[in-house]
Design brief:
It is built from three helices and 24 strands. It is α/β, with parallel strands linked by helices. A hairpin with a 4-residue loop joins strand 23 and strand 24. The longest helix is centred in the first third of the chain and has 15 residues.
């Protein structure tokens, strides 16, 4: 499988940081190293994390918290971008807000070399496409989304911001996925279905009809089992 890396994904005159240093961050860091080996990644300065102590982390470093990030942004002459490295959609949204409050306005979009992207695909900033993920054609992926290993999105889909498509999930054609939705590992969403905002689809579920906002649905076919608490 070949990646189609268009100009926005080729680094030039900026460095970058990762936000959060947990297990998913370790995966993201490994993708970053593969891009570096091909000369396709910006220089990674390190990790911003509010819990982990400053010091070595894998082959890079924990730099500090968002106060550290604000000082780093203010002191630098070279532009800086960021990429979130957590799977939890609400937490990812929170990290983006904190990065922007620290003065860091631009996110980095990471596309692994083993990703396949077709024609007329739009990727929002801060989105990550993991190895084996596939987006076919005439599809829009929003900001700060996560397409995990072997997740596939077919033609004419609309994926909102902060969506997490877990490993091996299949999104068929003309599907609409609302902001913050979480599609579990191995789940299938059939052609023409809409998934509401911040809705959770369980692992292995098959979604054959529209799902509203703020619900959890599981099973084959997927059925709503509970409603999510509204934000705020």
């Amino acid at each position: 499988m070949n990646a189609r890396l268009s100009a926005p994904f080729v680094p030039c005159d900026f460095d970058a940081v990762l936000l959060a240093g947990g297990g998913h961050a370790a995966e993201v860091y490994s993708y970053w190293r593969e891009l570096e080996a091909r000369g396709l990644a910006p220089r990674l300065l390190g990790i911003i994390d509010e819990v982990l102590p400053v010091g070595p982390w894998n082959e890079t470093h924990i730099l500090g918290d968002f106060g550290t990030l604000a000082r780093l942004v203010a002191a630098r002459g070279v532009p800086l971008r960021y990429l979130t490295a957590v799977g939890n959609n609400r937490l990812r949204q929170t990290l983006v807000a904190k990065a922007e409050a620290a003065g860091l306005k631009e996110a980095y979009t990471l596309v692994h070399p083993m990703t396949t992207i077709g024609q007329h695909v739009s990727l929002g900033e801060g989105t990550l496409l993991a190895p084996g993920s596939l987006v076919t054609t005439r599809t829009r992926i929003g900001r700060h989304c996560l397409l995990n290993v072997k997740a596939s999105v077919s033609h004419d889909c609309e994926v909102g911001d902060f969506v997490n498509l877990n490993p091996g999930c299949t999104i068929c054609g003309s599907v609409r996925i609302g902001e913050g939705a979480f599609i579990g590992a191995g789940a299938t969403v059939i052609n023409g279905v809409s998934i509401g905002q911040w809705t959770v689809v369980g692992a292995g579920a098959v979604v054959v009809r529209n799902l509203p906002d703020f619900v959890t649905a599981v099973g084959v076919p997927a059925r709503v089992i509970k409603r999510q608490p509204l934000p705020g």
